[in-house]
Design brief:
Elements lengths: L1 H15 L14 E8 L5 E7 L3 E6 L6 E5 L2 H13 L7 E3 L3 E9 L2 E9 L6 H16 L2
Parallel strand pairs: 5-7
Antiparallel strand pairs: 1-2, 1-6, 2-3, 3-4, 6-7
Length: about 140
């Protein structure tokens, strides 16, 4: 009986320490969504990085977000710090084209979208840089 109590207590401890998993639709903290698409098919593919390091993928022809992986906490913190430093969440740029690229930030419930496309004027340099950094994160984690 003593061993059963020990096993039950160990299992309860193990499950109570599990971190909470979220999706982009129910995450209460900061997140950044980035993606591209359009053109002949009109399909977009986007990724969402949550402040807790969870990374998701979603195509416009899918209903649900798919968890891709967890990103290192230090790398995630640096990305969100860069977004703040570069003032990405305050940028105003909306020039859609046939093929579009975008960054959407959400901090404290306030959402901001930067959108650029081809043909069209070039996006702000810092927005394009942040998009490249985020896409390299995807490429380096496949």
């Amino acid at each position: 009986m003593r061993y059963i109590n020990l096993i039950v207590m160990s299992l309860l401890g193990l499950f109570s320490c599990k971190s909470t998993s979220y999706t982009p639709t129910d995450y209460p903290k900061a997140m950044v969504t980035f993606g591209s698409g359009g053109g002949f098919t009109g399909i977009t593919t986007e990724y969402t990085l949550l402040e807790n390091g969870q990374l998701f993928r979603k195509s416009s022809n899918e209903k649900e977000h798919t968890a891709v992986k967890s990103v290192d906490k230090n790398k995630t913190a640096q990305i969100f710090e860069n977004i703040k430093t570069l003032k990405i969440a305050n940028m105003k740029f909306n020039h859609a084209g046939n093929m579009n690229t975008y960054l959407t930030t959400k901090f404290d419930g306030v959402e901001n979208k930067i959108n650029w496309g081809q043909p069209g004027p070039p996006p702000p340099k810092d927005a394009k840089l942040m998009y490249s950094i985020l896409m390299n994160l995807i490429k380096n984690n496949k």
